[in-house]
Write a structure and sequence with these properties.
The structure holds two protein chains of two kinds. By secondary structure, chain A is mainly α. Chain A is 67% helix and 0% strand. Classes of the chains: A mainly alpha, B mainly beta. Bound molecules: protoporphyrin IX containing FE.
Chain lengths: 148, 283
Amino acid sequence: MSVISEFSFSKSFYALTLAALLSACSGTQDTENLYTALGGEAGVEEIADNFIMEIAYDDRVIAYFEDANVDRFRQFFIEHLCMLTDGPCVYTGDTLIDTHVGMNVTVAAFNAIVEDLMAAMNKAGIAIGTQNRLLARMAELREQIIQM
Amino acid sequence: MINTMKLSIAPYLLLVSLFVPCVSAHADGRIKGTGGVSSVSGAGGGGLIAWATLTSLASEQQRGFTAFTTYTDLDDFTLEVAGAAVNFNDRVELSYARQRFTIKANDAQIAQDKYGLKVRVAGDLLYGKLPQIAAGIERNRLLDPATARAVGAVDDNGTDLYVSAARAWIDGPFHRTSMLNVNLRYSKANQYGLLGYGGDDRDTRVQVEVAAAMFLTRSIAIGAEYRQKPDNLSALREDEATDVFVAWFPNKHFSVTGAYVMLGEIAGAAQQNGFYLSIQGAL
Ligand code: HEM
């Protein structure tokens, strides 16, 4: 009996401590709309522009974009980012599956794009916690991009 | 003379790792840090235990190579390790490490070779529903079996088998990328095999190992590890091992890991704690 109560005491103690730590350290990041956290329209546009520059100088992925229309990519990437982060947009581009089918995106190319996006967000001054909120949502889309 | 020979691969490995940044970067298909570092057995992992992650940042269709050296300074002992590992297609890892254990009181040394094979069986560290699952085998051979015999070990060589699962959450606690790794190991090793294998006081053969890590930034990770160890020798007590670590990944080809290790009683000397420093080069 005493073992059980001690156990549940320590369990709830840890749960409380953890909850206190989490709420103290994450602040508004948890609840803040992700689009707003990225800086809204101006922030997302800056990220997209930085991202395009990162890709342009990335030997690992540039070949994929050789025939891409940069203006179209910019427009729809911004729209998609806006939708993905709960911003006030409707995505009007092609589905991710249709867009990336036949590209043979490799595991390495996907990760390279993720690193380019990290660099783009760093240059836009996005905090790492906010970056991770976005990257986790991007990761969910991976199987639509790397098609087996 | 013999003892200096025993760790003589270390300078070469160091030399190789120094040139790593100059060599072209083909095996960098995974995100920085997700290859972990080199464990004391040579297998990719944390420090005191192997992890399900395979060494280097090689992904499918890539081959990666790492070399490392590690120095641990305990109260009554030191442990020096040097080794190297290759990763084929992020599927198969081969590793080698030479360990040299020194008893400070009399400068006596025990050296050991560790050969490892680890296969990524399923899943992925970062993506998809399944954690990364790997299975590994480690062949260990003592070069100085006298001490092991003297303390009652049955063998001067042994084989460890393990299965390992690791998952990282990109948006983990505090919005920091965080990882959890759990291993189940079958082993008869006494103090990592430095005191031989098996003994007169047979203990459990299956041990649990756990590691947790968190990236504070893209370049700095902190974490802790726990390793259950068997206690097979009636003459000597053996405890579990734990550590807390900080790893720094300035780029995709180099890492430095510092740790505080708590290894418990070793060969009759109680409470062996100390500092651990490891550097790894990768290409
Ligand atoms: C989760 C990750 C990704 C997301 C959310 C994403 C999203 C998008 C979007 C919204 C578009 C525009 C669609 C349209 O024009 O209608 C696009 C186009 C494109 N994406 Fe991705 N993408 C991702 C990963 C990748 C990767 C890893 C590669 C290759 C390494 C890649 C290569 C391309 C290319 C080449 C285009 C231009 C296609 C064209 O205009 O012909 N994408 N992507």
